[in-house]
Amino acid sequence: MVRDEVAVAVAFVVKIDDQDLGAFNSCDGLGCEVVVEQREEGGNNGHVWQLPTRMKFSNVKLSRPVTADSAKLMRWFSGMAGGLKRKTATIEARTQEGTVIARWGLLDVIPIRWTGPQLNPDTPKVATETLELAHHGFFGPGTGG
What is the DSSP letter of 143? Predict the structure, then answer.
């Protein structure tokens, strides 16, 4: 009997149109939902119709301590000063040894927020940055694992 082992992801490697933005240690918001409209039918008191209308994709937030890879992110962001173009992205969940355990492809990606570290000498802590991406859906083989 073969048992699947539960793999624990410790890094999320992000590429935007094959441009490597480095590894992040936190990834939040990978998901989607079907937006449902409710319709009541006259004379039918037994139920309310639930009609699917469209797919809605949540923003993806990636966080990490500030590292040398932060410069890659800043170069990528500053390259968009002339205008934003929607791109594709891949997020790979990897183990500590670097084994890919899941991969997600994102369509029509645009960056919507970068938050840098809060620098305060009174409360020293790890300097972190967060990247937030909006997208229009998932693509590719191996999506979601």
Answer: B
